[in-house]
Amino acid sequence: MRPLCTALLMASAGLAATSAVAETLAVAPPARTEVPVELPAVTVSADSGGQAPTEMLDTYTIKKSGSASRLSLSPRETPQAMSVATHARMADFKQDSINDVLAGINGVTVEKVETNRTYYTARGFDITNFQFDGVGVPMTYGLQYGDIDSAMFDRVEVVRGANGLTSSTGNPSATVNFIRKRPTEDFQASAGVTLGSWDTKRLDVDVSGPLNEAGTVSGRMVAAHEDGHSYLDRYQPSKNVFYGVVDARLSDVSLLTLGFSQQKTHGKGAMWGALPLSYGDGAATHYDVGASTSADWSYLDTTEQRAFAEFSRQLGGGWQWKSTLGYNRFTSDSALFYVYGKPDKTTGGGLYAYPSLYDSVNSEAFFDSNLTGRYRLGGREHELNAGVALSRSSLDDVSHYGQGIGTELFGSQAFDGSFARPAFDARVDGSSYTDKRKTVYAASRLNLSDGVKLLVGANYTQAESTGYSYGASHRLDQSAASPYAGLVVDISDNLSVYASHAGIFNPQTKTDASGATLAAARGKSDELGVKGEFFQRKLNASLSVFRVEQNNIAEQAGYVGAQAYYRGIDAKSQGVEFELAGELARNWQASFGIVSQRINGDGGEAVRLYVPRTQLRASTTYRLPQLERLKLGASLNYQSSTRYKDAAMASQGGYAVLNLMASYDVDKHLTLSANLNNVTNRKYLSSVYWEQAYYAAPANGSVSVKWKY
Question: How far apart are CA 224 and CA 206, in angstroms?
Fold first, then answer.
């Protein structure tokens, strides 16, 4: 085995040097050139808590998680609502992108405002806190650029509400934790080929195992390639993914992990902005499902690189020290065509051109070091986690505006891609700023009695920014302490009730009419619920009520000359959530969640109308008792009606999307599968987060062949 592993390691090194990667930063429409700073603090949580990777298990739930507290707790022991997309669920429904994964998570809305730019919301507010293996990553923007591939992830965990123990800044919406695949003790390998609609082709490779005879060093390599056309006119996306990780056991008590990933995305025909949704007289527009405002020359290329090093050491007495050092680099290069205005039914005009080149470089460095262990007090054993986190993120971007800005477009000019590529020398603008975060944190789980546990903690974060963004200052110096408390009481062998409170703050760089920087937005969430675990902890269930508040959120209030100014507003949401995930019976896996919520502003009026008030997420698979090699499944996503600000600007009625799957294990090495998405061919807008949007994909499908050793 050693020669094979050595060859694989050398192949991994070669791929690391030649593969590339992507996600990243795109262009904002002209009215939104100010880039928000919503940068979560760097934090760390426990890993899978000793649980086997879900990729090795045909399950829709987990037994342990550290996403909410950095302590390894079961879902029932966690005093907050949480959801997980396991490897099995992602594989069953061919969720090859994080957008697809999160679209199936209870309470999460995926707002695909453009082909390469996405917002996520939960409990009425934008999700801005993201972690990799429990370590919070700096986030320069309040949205996600690119289409992150899911090939390198074992699972994705989402903790809803203000996650005060692992995310000290941001919104009281949710924290998304991406759990990366790790090396395995035994050799394993898999490869898959997928053919899909619009000539889409995908190749996946995953190889893992020991790299030396002693088994003290092990490695893993994941690679994927995908390309094809699209249902959208002129859009041809492609991506290349590479991920490599090595575990080196330095001693019986010390482990060093080194990892690197790249994703490179090419978006020929990418959209900047989207379709205008209303005419000048307020009537709604209608287009073919594949309509696009991109030009023939439009493109958006992004590259994402992530490198990390982890060192953990068992100190004895149940204590562990763990430190993580990471560096991320994101670059983008694009030539894009934005269309603004409202179509005029009489003249056929009313829309105007806005071409631009955009380039950016965003680098992030972060460090976290913490201690986790057990201590005795009052005759009982308790748990403690404490540490420090530092991060630094810098952004440099530039926009080269093209000749012909403001040219009126008539007839089909806005949608046929025919606008000629101009010289991009009309004007230049951009950003250059640096964000820094310093955080100290501590949390303890107090064992008050055999059936009563109290989780308490706090963190203190200092946020600093310097620089400018498109003519506006990007300076701030704000700090705050955020508390957390959660109580879990067992009421039977299977059921617990819980209550929790978490605070969070969000530094802001927006200025008011006098030019003064707005104070940080303050958020909090309160939650009550009951949780259960059944069938030997193979099934988890929860029912919760929540109330979330965010105060002093920056909202545009007007202009002083050409410069926008802002005011702080308050908003709150409250609602009920139910979730069931895991094994309902032998060979029957399921995940079901429903959310009903209200979101109101200062005066009690309904706000953030683009967030659906009711959502349902369901997915299930079943292996036939008479033929267990055959697996059949379905998923259903439903959401109620939404609108931008009023129905005349943009609105979307309630809709449901049904997906089907089937797979057949030819033998223990070979699996054939087929997936059908949006089988009812429902036509709906991908988002009404803005007053422009495009249509989601119509009915489509794929067939796959997977080989594993």
Answer: 9
What is the phi-psi region of residue 282: left when phi exceeds 0, alpha when psi lies from -120 to 50, beta otherwise?
A: left
Distance of CA 492 to the CA centre of its chain: 35
Residue whose pair of structure tokens reads 């205005």 in the numeric block: 341
Residue 56 DSSP SS3: helix
Q: Does residue 58 register a pLDDT over 80?
A: yes
Burial 488-525 (b: 16+ CB within 10 A, else e): bebeeeeebebebbbbbbbbbbbbbeeeebbebbbbbb
Interval 609-643: pLDDT, tens:
999 999 999 999 999 999 999 999 999 999 999 99
Q: The tokens 């996306």 sit on which residue?
A: 237
Q: Is the dihedral of CA 415, 418, 424, 426 positive or negative?
A: negative
Work out whether the CA dihedral 61, 42, 308, 251 comes out positive or negative: negative
Strand 129-132 and strand 174-180: the pairing is parallel
Distance CA 418, CA 246 (A): 49
Give the C-alpha distances (Å, rounded to integers) separating 625 from 588, 632, 667, 697.
10, 12, 17, 35
- Give, as one character, the DSSP assignment of residue 620: E
For the segment 416-430, the average pLDDT, to the nearest whole number, is: 96
- What 3-state class would DSSP assign to 6? helix
Residue 445 CA to its chain's centroid (Å):
28
Report the C-alpha gap between 261 and 245 in whole angstroms. 9
Determine how many CB atoms are found less than 10 A away from the CB of residue 471.
12
At 72 the three-state DSSP class reads coil
Q: Residue 582, by phi and psi: left (phi above 0), alpha (psi -120 to 50) or beta?
A: left
How would you class 316 by CB atoms within 10 Å of its CB: exposed for 0-12, middle for 13-18, buried for 19 or more? exposed
- What three-state secondary structure class fits 554? strand
Separation of alpha carbons 264 and 266, rounded Å: 7
Which of 236, 295, 265 has the alpha carbon at shortest distance from 25? 265
112-129 pLDDT, tens digit per residue, is 999 988 999 999 999 988
Alpha-carbon distance 352 to 448, whole Å? Answer: 66
Range with the poorest average pLDDT among 25-29, 416-420, 449-453: 25-29
Residue 366, SS3 per DSSP: strand
- Contact between 307 and 246 under an 8 Å Cβ cutoff? The reply is no
Which amino acid type is present at position 386? A
pLDDT-derived band at 20, boundaries 50, 70, 90: very low
* Mean of per-residue pLDDT scores for the chain: 89
DSSP summary character for residue 221: E
Q: Residue 630 has which token pair?
A: 């055959």
Tokens linked to 311: 């060192």
CA 631 to CA 415: how far, in whole Å?
43
Question: Burial level of 681, CB count in 10 A (0-12/13-18/19+)?
Answer: exposed
Instruction: Assess contact for 355 and 407: CB atoms under 8 A.
Output: no
Average confidence (pLDDT) over 496-513 = 88
pLDDT digits over 193-220, tens only? 999 999 999 999 999 999 999 999 999 9
Q: What is the mean pLDDT of residues 347-352?
A: 94
Number of C-beta neighbours around residue 39 at 10 A:
27
Measure Cα distances from 108 to 122, 157, 656 in Å.
5, 12, 15
SS (H, E, C) 100-142: HHHHCCCCEEEEEEECCEEEEEECCEECCEEEECCEECCCCCC
